[in-house]
Amino acid sequence: MPAWADCNADAMDGEETPLFYNSAHCGACNVSVDEPFAPTGFGYCDAGTPRLLGCELGWRANVDGTACDVCDSYLGGADVPDNGLDENCTSGDSTADESRGFFVDAVNGEDAADRGTRAAPFRTLVGVMDYGWPASPNRKELYLAAGTYADTLVAPQGAQVHGGFINNNGTWSRSSDRSLTVITAGTGFDFRHPSTTTPALYVVDTLTIRQPGAGPYRAIHYAGYVRLYVQEVDIELQGNNCYGVSPEHPADQGVIEGYVGIFNVNVAGPPECYALGGADPGYGVSTNVQLRAYGVNSSAQFGNSYPAASTWTFTRVTAPRFMAQSTTSTRIELSSFPATWNNLGNDNYADINDPTFLAYRSTLGPTRTKCSLSSICVAHDVSLTGASSDGWIYMASFLGGSLDVTGSVVDIGLIHNADIQGRGPSTGYLNGHEIQDSHLWLSGNEAIQRSASYFDVAVFERNRVRGGAVFNPTMTLIRNNVFQGSSTGAVVTLYGDNYSVPTFTFSNNTVLSTAGASCLGVRASGPLQTLAYNNVVACTSTTAGNRVALEESDTSAEFLGIQNNVLAGVDVLFKDEGATSISSLTVLNTSASLNADGRGGNTKLPSADDVLFVDLLNLDLRVMESSPAVNGGTNTSEEAKGGVTEDILLQARPCGSAHDVGAYEHCTGP
Questions:
Q1: Residues contacting residue 389 through CB under 8 Å, at least 6 positions apart
Q2: Other Cβ atoms closer than 10 A to 516
Q3: Do the beta carbons of residue 539 and residue 605 sit within 8 Å?
Q4: Which stretches of 179-280 are assigned E, i.e. beta strand?
Q5: Using an 8 Å Cβ cutoff, are 142 and 162 in contact?
Q6: Which DSSP helix (H) or strand (E) runs through 303?
Q7: DSSP for 364-406?
Q8: What gap in Å lies between CA 352 and CA 377, rounded to an integer?
Q9: Tens digits of per-residue pLDDT, 68-106?
Q10: pTM of the model
Q11: Rounded to whole angstroms, how far apart are CA atoms 613 and 626?
Q12: Residues 622/577, Cβ–Cβ less than 8 Å
């Protein structure tokens, strides 16, 4: 399967769409990852194949995780009454029932003994606590009619609070309008379950919690081993140090563990507040919390501290800022998370110790810190933007999506099938062990060390680079890439330093310099050794001058092998100011001079047109059948020459009698 495709049918921008991890174009143009799982689930793209990512509200995955076809077990077998959903897949939606709960009406009720029925409701939450639960502790559900309630509800084990009811002279019906029932206490609900071994279910749905003023307040407060379910709730926060849904704090109130579900919740408040507030790990609380947040919209920042041994899943969550501090063994999973994600680690990646962090189909940034390299951290079809200054992005894998490295130091183990940008002037560094099947657009930068983005990687293959690239010492293998430079300076700079003397293997690449008279294809600089096999290096300038294909820029650089390259449109094939021990190599402009000492089989062509690219004007750098690059290469499948067994499009090499020169292997076509 190809890594890229022309999905917009515009030949001018070529194959602009990645296919391996693209949720809208998975494996081929216009193949959506959601279609196989709709309407109950949604997917992600795994190397060109749609996989189930998650389930819509009210559903959960089947046993083998391939479809969402059974009801949500989050409520533990309970069902929210009169909301039109059958959460426990029984005989339909349940209804409000006097045998299970109390009716409360802030306008028409009265607080007294023997109240709480449809015909005679309580007036306040305090009335339920004073009269209702002491007499009937098993009636755990509250049905709140339209009105304002100024009390904090300190609820018993297993309490459920359902708002949005309308009382019409004893006939009760329910609306989905969550603005009808309003809680105005500083702490709206206080759920404290004494057990840390047996969970208790608490439910809040279809209402508004409006804090009366500046904090510290917690709209929903919980402690103990709880199964907390918050659905269709508006939370309005004010001031500083305020929280939407928050566990107990500090530690002397007990260990927090259990299940927290926040579904279709809107949190309005200043950025200093937290839509979801966790307890500080330094207090030793908030352990083993399983959180699922779905469809949450917040103008306050989302998250605070993340507990140990927990799984936190965020789906379709928006927030201006996302923060996390984590201890160990935490799993954090984001999907469809279009947020300005500011921190994971409180500006210090060392705060994140060995979690599993996964992000799917999300927009994140601008960012400072992600997570330490010891973590299992994967961005999957994510648009990620680094901070404008002093940015740090650390993770194990970046699969698909787009990555803006401008101004950031990026350290990623694997970058695959991604669109990478670095707009200059840039001070950013991009470090990765492997970068594959990606597009790199380094616009606005000179393709030289002082202003281009830097690449410190071990394997760089099947990528398309525009604007130049600089490779630092730990790079060892550069193969099957297309480099297009549009500025002065070298299109590719191989750079060594005094701390290590690397050997660069530069095999089967196509390098096109579109600069003026002073164009340069590949430069070796600093202490290094370079092997160059089967490369096309071409300059499009028609102005004779200092146009150089390969250059050693100082005395410490050395080309050890220059074999079977096609060098076109240059005045100088090899410019030696380094350590290569060949006589009379200061300026070379004949292929014969390059054939000395085992440096043989190179071809010099008068112009880039003579390479016979398919469409040089539109930058289609495949070669035609009659090109001297076809069958013109040495056998680079040998490990010593790069281990090249396929081309940039994953076409097996060779197609003909010998390996082709350049990034593309010609098999069929013009």
A1: 407
A2: 14
A3: no
A4: 181-183, 189-192, 200-210, 217-223, 225-236, 242-247, 257-268, 274-276
A5: yes
A6: none
A7: EEEES----TTSEEEEES-EEEE-SSSEEEEEEEEESSEEE-T
A8: 11
A9: 988 877 777 788 899 888 888 887 889 999 999 999 999
A10: 0.82
A11: 10
A12: no
Which ranges in 116-200 belong to alpha helices (H)?
A: 125-127, 133-135
The span from the CA of 273 to the CA of 267, in Å, is 10
Helix (H, G, I), strand (E, B) or coil at 228: strand
In sequence order, the β-bridge partners of residue 485 are: 513
Q: What angle (nearest 5°) sits at the alpha carbon of residue 360, between those of residues 438 and 301?
A: 120
pLDDT at residue 330 tops 70: no
The distance of Cα 354 from the centroid of its chain, to the nearest Å, equals: 18
Determine the 3-state secondary structure of 343 from DSSP: coil
Closest CA to 111 of 129, 90, 98, 95: 129
Here the tokens at position 574 are 């090899």
**How far is the C-alpha of 621 from the C-alpha of 643, rounded, in Å?**
22
What is the distance between the alpha carbons of residues 242 and 212, in angstroms, rounded to a whole number? Answer: 11
Q: How far apart are CA 233 and CA 204, in angstroms?
A: 8
The answer to whether the beta carbons of residues 563 and 597 sit under 8 Å apart is no
Query: CA-CA distance, 616 to 632, in Å (whole number)?
Result: 20
Q: What are the backbone dihedrals phi and psi of residue 134, each rounded to the nearest 5 degrees, phi first?
A: -60, -35
Short-list 377, 368, 334, 373, CA closest to 350: 373
Alpha-carbon distance of 163 to 231, in angstroms, equals 11
Highest mean pLDDT among 388-402, 460-474, 517-531: 517-531
pLDDT score of 308 more than 80:
no
The rounded distance, in Å, linking the Cα atoms of 245 and 158 is: 17
The token pair at 578 is: 């380094």
Task: Tokens 């130049």: give the residue.
Answer: 468
Residue with more model confidence, 249 or 31: 31
Task: Give the pLDDT confidence of 383-394 residue by residue, as tens digits.
Answer: 877 655 555 666
Q: How confident is the model at residue 214 (pLDDT cuts 50, 70, 90)?
A: confident
pLDDT in tens, 159-169: 999 999 999 99
CA distance linking residue 312 with residue 308, whole number of Å:
11
Residues 638, 470, 444: CA angle, nearest 5 degrees: 135
Q: Which DSSP letter does residue 132 get?
A: I
Radius of gyration in angstroms for the set of CA atoms belonging to the chain, rounded to a whole number: 32
Backbone angles phi, psi at 47, to 5 degrees: 55, 40
Residue 641 per-residue DSSP state = G
C-alpha closest to that of 391 among 403, 402, 401: 403
Alpha-carbon span 197 to 85, nearest angstrom: 30
Return phi, psi of residue 252, to 5°.
Answer: -70, -5
Structure tokens at 40: 């109950």
| Helix (H) or strand (E) segment spanning residue 592 | helix 591-594
- For residue 350 the two structure tokens come to 């060392």
Confidence of residue 485 (pLDDT cuts 50, 70, 90): confident
- Indicate the average pLDDT of the chain: 79
Residue ranges of E strands in 446-599: 454-461, 464-466, 469-471, 477-479, 482-485, 489-495, 503-507, 510-513, 519-525, 528-533, 536-539, 548-552, 557-563, 566-568, 572-576
CA distance 564 to 602: 4
CB 629 within 8 A of CB 566: yes
Tokens 């009454």 found at: 81
Tell me which of 224-228, 288-292, 490-494 is least confident: 288-292
